[in-house]
Design goal:
With 528 residues, the chain is of the alpha/beta class. It contains 13 helices and 14 strands. A hairpin with a 2-residue loop joins strand 10 and strand 11.
Length: 528
């Protein structure tokens, strides 16, 4: 071999080694890249309104029958993710849920004990850590799309719905009775990219954004009315954000996105429903009678006569979530994105003769929860009792920043439990705290305990006594048709009331502060 060939051969070896070194460094960078986060929660979606609950092995884990609803996207997330069979909305109402989700704290610490509404003072505290603020500090892009509902409405708008920041003329107007526009600053809690949709009018969402391109060149705080079905509109904006063609985010950073959809929240009428989806899947040609749609044995068919509209908006929302997940897959980011799918509370849909939420019964309090992360979690199910404040610390643990969880966060990091890693320091809870405006209780893996005061939930006057104290045995009575007086099963009641007292103390609940109903609840400073 000539000296020239030897030199060329040596250069090829060096070049090959450099390329491999560069490739190895790139692979290492990919391995070390923190996962993205996408939290999606349609409003008022009950746990069993998803198709996969009618299939094995999920059917055997369900409490009662799953709804006959078509949800291919949710089903795929479930079959490729971790499905929680015992996730509960501790306070099944829009604003209290959002306060707990955002902050990882219970109402007394986060500031929201009721729906944010004109005439009330409930608001998420400005000076507490939240999911967006903590992930912003951790080097993430942060974005929020959809319904906020954590700020009290104030008359700081002109009569066209534009934010002027003053109650003086041209201000002095509210933009909505519930929910309101959140201006830049502390109240946005570290959200960089902001696209807010307010008002329960699904084809007429009221939009505010800090991205002028998405609102016809308007400024942050100026009202935009796209007149588009809100999930369709939001999915379009989210996909645009992901594609990042206009530099909406720093592509070198992972993203943390929250998508709070309004449907299938009421109203349930033709004007607020994706009627094309209703006609295709749930019309009278397929379901002549409403009875065949309301399959739960505790459902009042007349009260739940809006099932077609409810299911149609569930299916439609599922479709638009699918579009966003398809985009993540095209980008090659889906496997390294922690998708958390849940809801703020359920929907009674005629069960127990009730509509809406804000009830102890399963249809209102049981929520879907799926964590989908192919790169980091094996698919399966877990019966872990999981509370809303646990979401924040668990996600921080999953992405590897569990050491940065602030001490004031009250939820528990269950990331090691989800990864099936043994850790004696993490104790699975025996019970979950339940709250309403006039009630407290607990959920366990078998029982629901509820203590209801002698007042309505929205009454301003104080209650004087417990009007009703009962237990549901969810194993023997999956549709909760029989209330058991606490005195009828004293040993069970003693354990449940002890758990209630522990949780009331741990969360600094007003009932604990006042030692309310101490003749029933065994308050103590120390428990075994």
């Amino acid at each position: 071999m000539s000296s020239r060939h030897i030199i060329l051969f040596a250069l090829l070896i060096v070049s090959f080694a450099c390329k491999n070194k560069k490739k190895s460094a790139t692979d290492n960078h990919e391995d070390q890249k923190k996962p993205n986060i996408l939290i999606v929660f349609p409003d008022q979606l009950r746990r069993y309104s998803a198709g996969f609950w009618s299939e094995s092995p999920y059917r055997e884990l369900a409490q009662g029958k799953g709804d006959p609803v078509i949800t291919p996207t949710i089903d795929k997330l479930a079959k490729n993710g971790m499905v929680f069979t015992q996730a509960v909305s501790n306070f099944p109402l829009c604003s209290p849920y959002r306060g707990m989700l955002m902050s990882g704290m219970y109402p007394e610490q986060n500031g929201i004990w009721n729906n944010c509404k004109v005439g009330r003072n409930h608001s998420l505290k400005d000076d507490i850590p939240t999911i967006p603020s903590l992930f912003l500090e951790a080097g993430y892009n942060t974005a929020y799309f959809g319904k906020c509902h954590w700020q009290k409405p104030e008359p700081l708008f002109d009569d066209n719905g534009n934010y002027v920041g003053s109650s003086e003329d041209p201000g002095g107007h509210y933009v909505n009775t519930y929910d309101t526009y959140i201006p830049p600053g502390k109240k946005r809690h570290g959200i960089e990219y902001f696209y807010e949709s307010i008002k329960d009018s699904h084809f007429n969402p009221h939009i505010y954004s800090n991205d002028p391109v998405t609102i016809e060149g308007k400024k942050d705080g100026q009202l935009h009315l796209p007149k588009i079905f809100s999930p369709k509109n939001e999915s379009r904006i989210i996909i645009d954000y992901l594609q990042n063609n206009r530099g909406q985010r720093d592509s070198n950073k992972p993203f943390c996105m929250i998508w709070s959809m309004n449907p299938p929240h009421n109203p349930w009428d033709d004007k607020n429903t994706d009627m094309e989806t209703l006609r295709k899947h749930y019309d009278i040609n397929k379901y002549p009678k409403i009875d065949t749609l309301l399959v739960r044995e505790n459902a009042d068919k007349e009260v739940g006569n809006y099932a077609r509209h409810y299911y149609a908006n569930v299916t439609s929302s599922d479709y638009y979530i699918g579009l966003v997940l398809d985009e993540l897959k095209k980008m090659g980011e889906l496997d390294n994105t922690i998708v958390v799918f849940s809801s703020d509370h359920g929907e009674m849909l005629g069960s127990h003769g009730k509509t809406g939420k804000n009830a102890v019964e399963l249809e209102a309090s049981a929520i879907p929860l799926i964590v989908h992360w192919p790169k980091g979690l094996a698919p399966g199910t877990t019966n872990l009792l999981f509370s809303v404040p646990d979401v924040l610390p668990t996600i921080m643990g999953l992405v590897g920043i569990g050491d940065s969880i602030p001490k004031e966060i009250e939820g528990t990091d269950f990331s090691l439990v989800l990864k099936n890693e043994e850790n004696d320091a993490i104790k699975k809870p025996k019970a979950i705290l339940f709250m309403l405006g006039n009630s407290r209780g607990v959920f366990t893996d078998r029982y629901s305990l509820c203590l209801r005061e002698n007042k309505k939930q929205w009454d301003k006057q104080d209650a004087t006594t417990i009007a009703e104290a009962f237990i549901y045995d969810n194993l023997k009575d999956p549709y909760q048709l029989n209330k058991i007086d606490i005195n009828a099963i004293p040993e069970v009641s003693k354990e449940l009331l002890t758990q209630l007292s522990i949780l009331l103390e741990q969360t600094n609940d007003p009932w604990f502060q006042d030692k309310r109903y101490s003749h029933i609840i065994p308050y103590a400073t120390n428990h075994d």
